[in-house]
Amino acid sequence: MIKVTGLVKRFGGTAVLDGIDLAIEQGEIIVVIGPSGTGKSTLLRCLNFLERPDAGRLTIGDLDVDVTRASRADILTARRRTAFVFQNYALFANKTALENIAEGLIVVNRWPKEKAHARAREILERIGLADKADAYPASLSGGQQQRVGIGRAMAAQAEVILFDEPTSSLDPEWVEEVLNLMKQLARERQTMLVVTHEMSFARDVADRVIFMEGGESSNRGPRPALQLTTGSPDTRFPAQGSGNPGNNRHPDLSRMPVRAIAVERTGD
Ligand SMILES: Nc1ncnc2c1ncn2[C@@H]1O[C@H](COP(=O)(O)OP(=O)(O)OP(=O)(O)O)[C@@H](O)[C@H]1O
Ligand SMILES: [Mg+2]
């Protein structure tokens, strides 16, 4: 299980995340949605210390640390247990698909090259790119590159894969193959935290949807601090037109067979 409590991240005095509590069960698929600037990427980045949080506690398996006191070793452990899939793939241009997938195993996990390459070949099979092992990113389509990006995350065998808008830089024609691979992982109950605008993906595979709101759109002075609160497992979003203003703002959510997480605005 992955758990954060009281997660705070400030940029220049403004709290982008202000006391986030979130627990992710093994095998759970959580989708995070919300307008630009509300801290979705920051949340993911704090979970593997790509950003250093200002307060909070992070638990991943037997790692349990106050994030402000995390040692180098703690941070490495957190990174090994969380794999990141970036919007822009972030592949090494001078390495083949196979080498891109094997790289983390060699550098981070210190696997011998042969073993890492063997694992990378297995992953290439699973992502349907066995024939592209020796291809460099520039010769792959956007969809293929992102599948390699996901393959690299799969190879890491992390507790959770963090996806930050994995399809939003793709030409529309490549979106589906990437979503299909993510759905395959979801069926295998790979624990995933996915920031995406793909509402149909959220509807089809999410166990829970987190909605982050506030931020830039607020013109009432300082940004309202955000807090996620977990609804009861049986909560359903009310039917459309029920008079719930939140529902009218986000009509797509009303049709989702998900367990709800409500977002409370505090400090407003
Ligand atoms: N390194 C940084 N330095 C200063 N401010 C930052 C930094 N990273 C993010 N921010 C600010 O924090 C807020 C949240 O940013 P974040 O990228 O997490 O939002 P987001 O929800 O992922 O947005 P988007 O949907 O556009 O990706 C924004 O106001 C952003 O400008
Ligand atoms: Mg973002």
What oligomeric state best describes the polypeptide chains here?
single chain
Number of helices: 8
Unreliable stretches covering 5 or more consecutive residues = 215-268
Structural class, by secondary structure, is alpha/beta
| Strand order across the largest sheet | 6-7-8-3-9-11-10
Distance between the first and last residues' Cα: 32 Å
Percentage of β-strand residues: 25-35%
Largest sheet: 7 strands, mixed
Average pLDDT score: 82
Please state the CA-atom Rg, rounded to the nearest Å.
Answer: 19 Å
Q: What ligands are attached or bound here? A: adenosine-5'-triphosphate, magnesium ion
Count every beta strand, where a strand is a DSSP E run of 2 or more residues: 11
Give the gist of this structure.
By secondary structure, this protein is an alpha/beta fold.
Supply database-style keywords.
seven-stranded mixed beta sheet; 268 residues; binds adenosine-5'-triphosphate; disordered C terminus; four-stranded antiparallel beta sheet; alpha/beta; binds magnesium ion
